[in-house]
Amino acid sequence: MIDLVSASILSSDLLNLESEIRKLEKNNVDWIHFDVMDGVFVPNISYGIPVLAQISKKTDLFLDVHLMITDPLKYITQFDEAGADMITFHVESASDTMEVIRALKQTECHIGIAVKPNTPAEDVFPYIGYADMILVMTVEPGFGGQSFMDMSDKIRSIREYADKNGYEELLIQVDGGIDDKTAPIVRSAGAEVLVSGSYLFKAENMAEAVGKLKEEI
Ligand code: DX5
Ligand code: ZN
C-alpha cells in the first residue's frame, strides 16, 4: 500500500514560501497541496494561478491543486499551464462534472474529484472510472486547523466500489484535521494520500511528523 503525505501550504509561513518549500523537500513530504479558494464556493480567499506558477518554477515536488472554486471548468487550462500535476475539483461545484473531466483529459494533469463531508459517496460513483483520485474532505472546506470529522464509512464505500468495478488503482485522499492521531483512522479505512497542514507546520521536527503519519498501523 502506498502512503503519501501532501503538505497543505495554507498553514506555512507564506512570506517565506521558498524556504518552507525547501523544508518540505528535506523532510520527506511527497506532494505540495495547494488550496485555491474563491470566497464564493467557500467563505475564504487564498491564492491562485500566479503563486502556483512561481512555486512550480522552484520545486520538483508534485503539485496537488485543490480547487475550492465555484466554476472550475473556467480555470483548468490556466492551472495546468501554471504547473499543476493533479487538479482536484469539487463534485458540488457549479461546473458540469463530465465537462471538467473532459477538459482535464486535454491536459497532462491527473484528475481528482472532491466531496464535502455532507455529500454522499454515491455522488462520485459515476465518475470514479475517469478519476485518478477521490478527495474525501474530513472538514468543511475553507480553513486550515479545524477538527477532524470521521468519514471512515465514506472512504470504505468508495474503496469498495472502486475495487469491485476494476478501479483498484484509484487513490483516496483525505484533507482536514489529519495528524498522528487521525491518520491511523483514515488509513485503516482505505485512504492513502494524507493532506496535512497545521500538524506538519507546527511540528518541531517535520520529518518525524511525516514519519508518524506514515507509521505502520
Ligand atoms: C481546508 C483545506 C485544507 C487545509 C488542511 O479547506 O482544503 O487543505 O489546509 O489543513 P489542516 O491539516 O490544518 O486541517
Ligand atoms: Zn485542501
Report on this model:
The model has no long low-confidence stretch (mean pLDDT 98). The protein has one domain (4-213): Aldolase class I (TIM Barrel), CATH 3.20.20. The radius of gyration is 16 Å and the shape is globular. It is built from 8 helices and 8 strands, in the order βαβαβαβαββαβαβαα. The chain is of the alpha/beta class and 217 residues long. Strands 1-2-3-4-5-6-7-8 form an 8-stranded parallel beta barrel. The longest helix is centred in the C-terminal third of the chain and has 13 residues, at 152-164. Residues 8, 10-11, 33, 35, 66, 139, 141-146, 175-178, 195-199 line the site of D-xylitol-5-phosphate.
Number of strands: 8
Average pLDDT number: 98
What is the domain tally?
Answer: 1
Give the radius of gyration.
16 Å
For the record, the CATH architecture stands as Alpha-Beta Barrel
Distinct bound molecules: D-xylitol-5-phosphate, zinc ion
CATH topology annotation: TIM Barrel
Terminal-residue CA separation: 12 Å
SS field, number of helical segments: 8
- Spatial strand arrangement across the major sheet: 1-2-3-4-5-6-7-8
- Helix/strand/pairing category: alpha/beta
String of helices and strands: EHEHEHEHEEHEHEHH
Given as residue ranges, the uncertain stretches (5+ residues, pLDDT < 50) are none
Strand content: 15-25%
Largest sheet: 8 strands, parallel, barrel
How would you name the CATH homologous superfamily?
Answer: Aldolase class I
